[in-house]
Amino acid sequence: MISEAQFQKELEIIISNAIREDVGDGDHSSLACIPSTAQGKAKLLVKDEGVIAGVEFAKMIFNYVDKNMVVEVVIQDGEKVKHGDIVLYVSGSSQSILKAERLVLNSMQRMSAIATKTKMFVDLLEGTQTKILDTRKTTPGIRAIEKWAVKIGGGENHRFALYDMIMLKDNHIDFAGGIAEAIAKTKHYLIDNNKDLRIIVEARNLDEVQQILDAGGVYRILLDNFDYETTKKAVAMIGNQSLTESSGNINEKTIRNYAECGVNYISSGALTHSVYNMDLSLKAI
Does 224 qualify as catalytic in the annotation? Predict the structure, then answer.
């Protein structure tokens, strides 16, 4: 993953771009009927159940819109919530509260849905040594908050983007001329460009697993669309030579079985690309 400083920069970019997109040259609905001196207070209300996420991000949004707004947090990120719970109160300029409202809700609804789904998968893995990973199958422009939500839900982050880890998948391997060639070229590339990046290589069968092991120097081997028995054989072959990761249409019905095969990680794009937003609202009080 990227550094904390770079991650914070990504969050700032998301906020500034979202406000630009939503506010433009002004929130004319509020400007038209609410005095600039008006002060107000609102509560963030839960109308669903699951794991709340995005509280700290909401604080960043309110601060970006108006540093004078005051946020009182009642329920922290990662806590379970139910219908009727109040997550936070915000007070200050009524115009500022309304300007920030939609971005806060959109972000928290999405992040809470991801955290809730992640927590479900984490619970299914309880008692095993396997950890759940996200992927790059994220919403363009808001990857940082979606990966943050995975962490809040108890999961772990895969690489952030194309630049912070080497991942040689089937197309890379085929275009490069094979596994040995792809790995060898990658090692030379890293040396030539003075880069220290971990290497993950995808295997489509046990023969490819052996080819990866023969090449050496691979941080993690991705077992793509392996069945249970083949996964167990691959884990035994690999031993402590590399970490292992299972992927490929793994869902809540199959995830436990893959974990019991002994893999270190299971990656799931569904954590971020297939969720239903948690129902939240911001109500004036």
Answer: yes
Catalytic site residue from 27, 202, 208, 245: 202
Q: Is 102 annotated as catalytic?
A: yes
Tens digit of pLDDT at every position of the chain (285 positions): 799 999 999 999 999 999 999 999 999 999 999 999 999 999 999 999 999 999 999 999 999 999 999 999 999 999 999 999 999 999 999 999 999 999 999 999 999 999 999 999 999 999 999 999 999 999 999 999 999 999 999 999 999 999 999 999 999 999 999 999 999 999 999 999 999 999 999 999 999 999 999 999 999 999 999 999 999 999 999 999 999 999 998 999 999 999 999 999 999 999 999 999 999 999 999
Distance CA 203, CA 222 (A): 6
Q: 43, 59, 136, 169: which one is catalytic?
A: 169
